[in-house]
Protein 1
Amino acid sequence: EIAEALFPLAARPLVDVRVLLTAGPTREPLDPVRFLGNRSSGRMGFALADALEALGARVTLITGPTSLPGPRVTERVDVETALEMHGAVMSRATEYDIFVATAAVADYRSAAPAENKIKKNADELTLRLVRNPDILAEVAALPLPPFTVGFAAETDRVEEYARDKLNRKGLNMIAANHVGGAQGGFERAENALTVIWHDGQRELPMMDKTRLARELAALIAERYQEHHAASS
Amino acid sequence: EIAEALFPLAARPLVDVRVLLTAGPTREPLDPVRFLGNRSSGRMGFALADALEALGARVTLITGPTSLPGPRVTERVDVETALEMHGAVMSRATEYDIFVATAAVADYRSAAPAENKIKKNADELTLRLVRNPDILAEVAALPLPPFTVGFAAETDRVEEYARDKLNRKGLNMIAANHVGGAQGGFERAENALTVIWHDGQRELPMMDKTRLARELAALIAERYQEHHAASS
């Protein structure tokens, strides 16, 4: 009650809203020591989880391996592979109002991970990979999907690819950023985002990831409320 | 001088000995965001670098990406890929008395890393990998090689594979550990080692990596001095 007196309801627009949020990379084992990984630090996702909790939401974080101290969330579930993340998300998704997919989920996993360490006899090695399930698209395709927010990390044609992903997967919103080069993103403390929805978009310019997460959380709350009002 | 008074020379057997030590994993980029990695934390290598400095050695550490605070070494060089580590080691190796290869260097790299993020259209993907140079074998094969210590992380037939590696690569010593399962090693605080040389071996049982590093450093010093006495 004290919190509500200090922060008027308008400043905590997500009170009692349940958010399921994925963060970090996934790791796809090739054998007991080697894996396919990616450069996601989990920093943007952790900051966004914090920012959504600060707006009143009850956040369940499902995260791949990171070296970050946990954010203060209602619940945290640690996973390693894309299949584990898929299971953790799909078993919970229908219980949430908002789903935010910041995790950099590996698109492919080894077709046949080795039980013992692979011996390196050959000069060349061919690795056969198979597609992982598309968690984001599966959540958005549920009969009664949560308000679904995706991320797109692109090295080129950022806005075009992101809007295509929004439409193709039936998302409510997508936050796109440019990775590689000096533009921020993976493994950096700063980032910039182009946030796109069906009939609009907004630029969040280069800034500290903590501040960027707060602005994005406020934008998610705004779009969620508009969507909620329109559909009820 | 105070240190020498407190620690008699016998307790600092590596005073003025130059040690080149590699640690951590390497990362082999597949595209700007994805990479092939491995589970080496760098912890054993960092602890060993510390322990060797404590015995009086001047250690140059060449390390792949880790999230560890640096050990107190004479010099530290950060690299990412196996090729970078190869370059950093081979340009320096002849200047050192001892070479210790604790790094988990990727055996393979992508035959053709993509400049832009790979689009995931196919259900299956085939990754063509090519062999990385064998840094350890190249150092041991130098005309006047340093005293060369390798590591072997094996999931099965540990001692047999390690002794084979010692002979095949012409090492002076190899420290073998069993990875996978509950036996310690990668991503764990404890480890056990079987240390093997041409005409002997010693078991260092499961213990904290810091203590294990001290025992291994003492054993390296002992074998190095014996080797040095025999060859001079």
Protein 2
Amino acid sequence: MNFTYKNPTLIEFGKGKIANLKNLIPKDRTILFLYGGGSIKRNGIYEQVIQALQNHSFVEFSGVEPNPTKETLDKAVLFARENNVDFILAVGGGSVIDGSKYIASSFHYDGDGWDILENKYIPKKALDIGVVLTLAATGSESNSGAVITKKQTKEKRFFGSPFTYPSFAILDPDVLKSLDDRQIVNGLIDSFVHVCEQYLTINHGCLVQDRYSEALLLSILELMQTFDKKDDLWYANLMWSANQALNGLIGTGVPQDWATHFIGHELSGLYGIDHARTLAIIQPNLLRELLDEKSQKLLQMGKNVFAMQTDDVNKVIDKIESLYLSLGVNLKLSSYTDDKNIAQKVIELLHKHGFDRFGINRTVSKDTVEKIIKRSL
Amino acid sequence: MNFTYKNPTLIEFGKGKIANLKNLIPKDRTILFLYGGGSIKRNGIYEQVIQALQNHSFVEFSGVEPNPTKETLDKAVLFARENNVDFILAVGGGSVIDGSKYIASSFHYDGDGWDILENKYIPKKALDIGVVLTLAATGSESNSGAVITKKQTKEKRFFGSPFTYPSFAILDPDVLKSLDDRQIVNGLIDSFVHVCEQYLTINHGCLVQDRYSEALLLSILELMQTFDKKDDLWYANLMWSANQALNGLIGTGVPQDWATHFIGHELSGLYGIDHARTLAIIQPNLLRELLDEKSQKLLQMGKNVFAMQTDDVNKVIDKIESLYLSLGVNLKLSSYTDDKNIAQKVIELLHKHGFDRFGINRTVSKDTVEKIIKRSL
């Protein structure tokens, strides 16, 4: 257990907190108000932000896509420079926030921003970012990571930088009420799998990290089971669970295994499948292919999360899969695309991105990926 | 669930991390190297710090007591001013760290530093603080609170300020190996009760906060049960559990009840009893006096922490008490002092400090305190 940890993001959690924007951003800043497809204009969040910023200078950039593309974000970078912006306010979910991190890091870089995603350029500074969260899912509002898509090559890649932690994040659970069930379900699955990627590894004996992960899994499980009884507290619990699932805390000092995400990213890059759905499709089958190395943690999860008295790992995996099915998620890859060469394309992209062997013990080979995809068709 | 949360302290966790001091403190600072009774000279920590600071300017101030007194700390303030100090390095446990917060806040204040403890002066700035932790117990290394004693009046009071979060804290679990059992036991109890004060309140339905608290209680319980099998990982788990128990996270947005601490502080102010031991003495009897209002959470604790299938609250309290006894702690107040007027003196001091009725529903009256003390004799 050896680690460095700091999470500098100020969290403002609760009803009505969007109004605090006026105090959270210094008056002398020129703000890039960044958002997505315009849903914030229908649910009243746009009005709340405009109201809070009435004594601030800002320019608006909208149209950041659900899987934010470098192509769109590069336009935002130019727009930000033209307007001498020195603060980005990201109002949205993971996509808009991730996008803001790309813009903030590219702003001071003369080359192609995609270099950051390919580790050819390491940002040395970034614009300040503030967040008004409108979706509970990715945890991006208080972590430093971002996933960006290159439309031209259908690639989806990750970067992180110590300079891209938002300085503040406003989490008003009321904003979740206008989301449709599909978005809420995606948030539940996304945060559940985020915890799993930091938990279903090896038996390391770090007590707090294991118990914290189980705490979040228990919380999200309860939310899944009470999906039809959503009230104010339900939304607040979802918002805080999703935040904690990926703010860096539960993964400090322990091994992590993001194999499901690596495969999932290629699938949503190739076919535009919702991020959370790619995870729900891949994760159970990945676990089935890695039964031996995952069995110890899976049995622990069965006992401590699902209260199962079993030493059959398959039953624990079936339980995880049944949760996703109970939320109405289609787990058949063939329902999302009629491409006959999914495995081949995924393997090619993974290779291009340097993932020939990955997973906690580097046991996920081309062959393993092929088997996982075959199980998932 | 409505809260503001930020924890700005950088945690450097792991073996050998003390050497990082040289990079964590800017070279142009003049450091007050603050420590306690000199145990760090016997266990090698002093040498590690001196080695790491060989290219820094620093002055030393030692002699901060286990319950740090304003009288000693005021001397440190004068010493710090005389030496134009602009950074405090606290090397110690909760007492030294709490002391550093008093010094950092008083440094810029012309009046009596004790005014801060009496809320007569609210610090508007403070010196920067860095920490090398030598005891796992109070969590003071990454929170903003401090408990200070006034020797003259035997008062022990609390203050907190947004300016007194340490900027960094080095947590090297190896430093715990030189502690005696009494100190380790105190750390286990202190952190266990810290969690309880944020957990044993009312049934609020905030899932993450409840599950996180149970996660820490389960971790500390396991450490108590494996006290005789202390290895590297055991110490690391203790250090991280104690930190998380009071860094502000588990108590965000939920009610807290520090009644046990309020009574405990008066007892250690009056009789010099170790802080943790006052908690172990008082807590079970306080719970017995507040059976009705605590029953829902106690039964939840019985089920989720102790895996007890009972609806008898008393059995859960007995279980808590038995943990403290199993660690060899004497729970009879009469063994620590032969004063016949304990209750009266505690009640008088509580009154002086504004605590005539306290606890989650303000149900802890003079009468309740008297009954709790009587049960504890």
